[in-house]
Structures are given as C-alpha cells and as structure tokens.
Amino acid sequence: MSTEDDSTDETDGSVTATVMESTGYQIGSPSTGTVAVGDDDDPPVVSIAGSSAITEGGTASFTLTATPAPQTALTVEVTVADSGAFAASGQSGAQQVTLGTTGTATFDVATDDDSADEPDGVLTATVQPGTGYASSGTHGSASIAVHDNDVATACVSDQLLTRVEGYYENNQSRPPG
C-alpha cells in the first residue's frame, strides 16, 4: 500500500490493514496493523493587507489571506495596535479572525469620532504565530492611517490682551480637550 505525496497541508492520519478470514490459512494474532501517516506539507502562510487611510469615526478594514487556502476553517491570532487614541473600545489588542476554506477573510476595526483635536494616528494589525498556519515574513503586518477630523480652536479674551505704548500684547493658550 502506498500514500500519495500531494502539496495540500492536511492533518496527520493513519492506515489500518486487516487480514480477513478465508480458506487455506489461519489468522494469527494480531490480525490488524496500523501505520501512522504524517503530512509533510507546509501549513498555509497568512498575510495581511490594509485598506486606504480613514478619518476618525470610520472603519479600518484589513484582509487576511492564507496561501494555500486551508482545507478546514482556520482561526488566526491578530494583534491590533493604536498609535493614537482612535480605536473604539475593545478593538485594539488580541483579536481572532476565522478564515474559511476560501482562504480569505476581512477584519474590521471601528474607530471613535471624538471632539478632541489631536495628531493623526495609525492602526497596525499583526498576524501572530499560531497553530495550523505561519505568519508571512514580508506581509505579516499592515498599517492604516487614521486622520483626525477635529479643528483646533482659538480662544480670545479681553483679559489676555494688554496695551503697552500703542501695541497689543496677545497671550494665547490652547483650550482644554
């Protein structure tokens, strides 16, 4: 009996042979034998890509792709990092994404639309090592820019203005928030 050497990653298996009763011989013990068959194919490699830049309050979309596509559903560990304060509650940190037998899944990260003027930020999703797959060495991480949509405001108060010999002195301070 021989096995087929294919290029599909699959679970290890076994082959069992059983001697059947017939005339002309006696069956000894044991009458069955089992041989383990180990799969020698590499697991799927998972890569990740990000959508174009978004504005706070929008949704960042990441696409995970397993090559080759898995034979059964595959759960992939992903970590989401936020360089600002844009990710909605529960959207950053460790996440799980399930890829079906198509080998592709989209993973969304919601962002908050706040009223604070702040520098633009970046959301980065990274495929973590896991069981049944390998993370791509070149495309295991993707980043999406998040643009702040709040406008800086200026506060002017007559208490901050003084006149000295024909000139005004203007003291400015950034409003809280």
TrEMBL record:
It comes from the Bacteria. Residues 21-44 are annotated as: Disordered. Residues 21-31 have a biased composition (Polar residues). SUPFAM superfamilies: CalX-like. This is Calx-beta domain-containing protein.
